[in-house]
């Protein structure tokens, strides 16, 4: 069924939208509608919360969480998305690991360009530490723009002298704001979701005229990655952002980071969102991500 599943999802993602360039509000509404179609597993409960002064969604197993917390950063090109649109992913990780999760509603561009969202995420991490959680009991995870934030928030924490989380999981992360990867060209047309023009448009909203060649904007190219915790990067081959992942993993390895680059053939951007029936590869990838997390947060109270 896998090839048929991938083909069906590719066709669905290629359905033409309204004519013309969508407004920011139309982008946000379209993304909400797309993500509302995704499967949220049973056995979890959600509670509105506040973390570091920002709204957040607390996601827990119905039967109680084991020790360990996932700080999740949602995707959406730094312009759209929310903890609710990412619930299919946070709930899947929670149900598979038994950990709880906080998903941060960080500020979005163009109203709040870089570094507003990053500052929100770093404050959320500080709030978890201030609550008494040990860094060894915390993992960062995120998808797309949020996958980028899972890396850059760790870099910002390191530079601020904070203890680093135990692990990072990044689904199809955006790690090069300058869009210099070869896959930006070689995967154009193969990627059923993004075009170069589309990601450059939302990227410009996030940059607001700032130089993209900064470590916290393009860590796949410009950051010193020394000292990062173990990282799992999952990406599909049918992505114009593929080289963000491959270049980051290569540079992380050279910096002495324990990094796993997990590439799934013929899969689109953040294919893990199609777990729960539509795509077998999505469930398999999330199982691998859950194993990675449980191995690194196996017994945080004993550390």
Brief summary:
The chain has 10 helices and 8 strands.
Number of helices: 10
Portion in beta strands: 15-25%
Reading off the top of the CATH hierarchy, the class is best stated as: Alpha Beta
Structural class: alpha/beta
Question: pLDDT average, as an integer?
Answer: 96
Which regions are unreliable across 5 or more consecutive residues at pLDDT < 50?
Answer: none
CATH architectural label? 3-Layer(aba) Sandwich
Under CATH, the homologous superfamily reads Alpha/Beta hydrolase fold, catalytic domain
- Write the CATH fold name: Rossmann fold
C-alpha geometry: globular
Q: Within the largest sheet, what's the order of strands?
A: 1-2-4-3-5-6-7-8
Fraction of residues in helices? 25-40%
- End-to-end Cα distance: 43 Å
Number of domains: 1
Work out the number of β strands: 8
Order of helices and strands: HHEEEHEHEHEHHHEHEH
Q: Tell me about the biggest sheet?
A: 8 strands, mixed
Computed over alpha carbons, the radius of gyration is 18 Å
Characterization of this structure:
By secondary structure, this protein is of the alpha/beta class. The chain has a single domain, classed as Alpha/Beta hydrolase fold, catalytic domain (Rossmann fold), CATH 3.40.50. Helices cover 38% and strands 16% of the residues. An 8-stranded mixed β-sheet has the order 1-2-4-3-5-6-7-8, sandwiched between helices. It is globular, with a radius of gyration of 18 Å. The relative contact order is 0.15. The model has no long low-confidence stretch (mean pLDDT 96).
